[in-house]
Specification:
The chain is of the alpha/beta class. It contains 13 helices and 10 strands.
Amino acid sequence: MQQKLITFAVPCYNSAAYMRHCIETLLTAGEQAEIILVDDGSVKDDTPAICDEYAAKYPTIVKAIHQENGGHGEGVNQGIRNARGLYFKVVDSDDWLDVPSAKELLATIRRHLENGSPADLYICNYVYEHETQGSRVMRYRSTLPVGRIFGWSEIRSFKPWQYLLMHSVIYRTQLLRDCGLELPKHTFYVDNIFVYQPLPSVRNIYYLDVDLYRYFIGRADQSVNETVMVGRVDQQLRVTYQMIDSHDLRVLTAEQPKLGRYMFNYLAMMMAISSIFLTIADTPECLGKKTQLWEYLRTVDTGIYHKMKYRAVSAFTNFPGYQGRRLSVGLYRLARKIYKFN
């Protein structure tokens, strides 16, 4: 069987209302792509039937996998386990790809393979497609070299709103397997682990400055809605703890200073997000979990703990007392309004 250039993994859970649009944009890649539709135990609509319909209609491109409900992370895990593509891209079923940009990406990967210089990681822009507030593009041209292979030593500082997300990355499939990536089941926000844990295994990177991924945002039931995130704060904590445990940032920074600095800042952002939603919940139990989280980081590395708690982006979530907590929440909501991240 011919080697596929890329695998698109599409975790689907009760997605019938919007998944067709996503799939149709992926099908434009033709036979060079594999599309794995992972039905995550959908029971409320026609998601399983739609997966089977596309698999029957495009048997050389589309594969349907039906699993007991395991959450988004297990959908991604299934994609990695079954992928036949040299590269791997997750596309959520309510999102889609810009077709011309996808064609340019695949042409770039193919050219690099022919030249014997493929990258471990391809990065493209993504676009917030907000239901009520319009579109906003997240680009990396101020941070990454454009149009050539580069390494971590050549990156510049990322802005706090400019971190790599699952939407912006295309990993070499074997790299994901070799680094032992396994996302937790029944857990939202695992995309942070997906984009964080493999990075030290990456040696060669290519940034293609096109607006590839269209990230639909703004629905009331979406996982990044503030009320939903407060209700799922324990899942956010699970992700943050796994990220703390995944790498020794002190050793990594000594070996690759710029990558170490980036990953420190990313983890600091995750600590801030976990802390702010525990603060918004404002129960004794949640405030206790916030303390436990920071104490756990202290046990892992006291120096990292002090730097992250008092000098990094997460410092704004640690103002003391009731008024300090109110100030932290107010600053978070102001940032959310300015940057429209949920």
